[in-house]
Design goal:
5 helices, 8 strands, NE0471 N-terminal domain-like, three-stranded antiparallel β-sheet, alpha+beta
Length: 110
Amino acid sequence: MKHGNAIKDVQPTGGYRLQVVFGDGYIGEVDLRPLFEKPRGPLTEAFRDPAFFAKAYIEFNAVAWPNGYDIDPDVLRYYCEMGRVCPREELAAVFETADTAPMILNDKQK
């Protein structure tokens, strides 16, 4: 959590949409379908079933699922503010600086 975002509440709202309440009171909603349209490995395979997606919960201030997949709260906040899932290149430009390690998304190093 580089930017200090913490998730206080998460509610699946149908399909692959989440409504997220952050610690500072910001409420956002985003469709995460692009993350799961083409499973990239064993952790994302379970998301072919929207019922699995609906099992989202909060763990360590992040949104997580029973298979161990989670989304960094800073990344999720950015998605909510942009109103969409953003490409890796965009996230890298926003979050990586010379003094940070490379981002790891969907179990694959950028």
